[in-house]
Design brief:
CATH class: Alpha Beta
CATH topology: Rossmann fold
Helix content: 25-40%
Structural class: alpha/beta
Strand content: 15-25%
Bound molecules: 1,3,4-trihydroxy-5-OXO-cyclohexanecarboxylic acid
Oligomer: single chain
Strand order of the largest sheet: 2-1-3-4-5
CATH superfamily: Dehydroquinase, class II
Number of strands: 5
CATH architecture: 3-Layer(aba) Sandwich
Low-confidence stretches: none
Number of helices: 5
Length: about 140
């Protein structure tokens, strides 16, 4: 059987994981964590995309959102601002799992609302980088 195609999308500032506010987001870079993920999920065809640009994330969702089996999306701050990305999640047929490394509900009130959640198959927050792993297990 063909491997399920899953794309992890990280939004703005998540390229700085490991350097950025380590007390909130930890010390590990996503590149290192991703190497471990690839080994841990040999049965999935896993790809990774990071962008700081809303339009690039929209283009990626449009491009793969009718053919991939799943998307793990950490939209970073766009989660709380982007109706355009929310509309794209609603438009595509690939199920999306929303992930946040930190517990957004225990932080500033502007982080409590997600435009994405109502269009997502599931949501994982506050489990650190492990949240990506928990999301991937849905398709493994
Ligand atoms: C985040 C939470 C967002 O509020 C924040 O803007 C981020 C990271 C998280 O993974 O905890 O950039 O999505």
């Amino acid at each position: 059987m063909a491997k399920k195609k899953i794309l992890i999308i990280n939004g703005p500032n998540l390229n700085l994981l490991g350097k950025r506010e380590p007390e909130i987001y930890g010390n590990q870079s996503f590149e290192d964590y991703y190497k471990m993920l690839k080994k841990k999920f040999p049965n999935l065809s896993l790809k990774y995309f990071q962008s700081n640009h809303e339009g690039e994330i929209l283009d990626k969702l449009h491009k793969i959102g009718f053919s991939y089996n799943g998307i793990v999306l950490n939209g970073g701050a766009f989660t709380h601002t982007s109706i355009a990305i929310a509309d794209a999640i609603a438009a595509i047929t690939t199920p999306v799992i929303e992930v946040h490394i930190s517990n957004v509900h225990a932080r500033e009130t502007f982080r409590h609302h997600s435009y994405f959640s109502e269009h997502c198959a599931g949501i994982i927050v506050g489990m650190g980088l492990k949240g990506y792993e928990l999301a991937l297990r849905f398709w493994d």
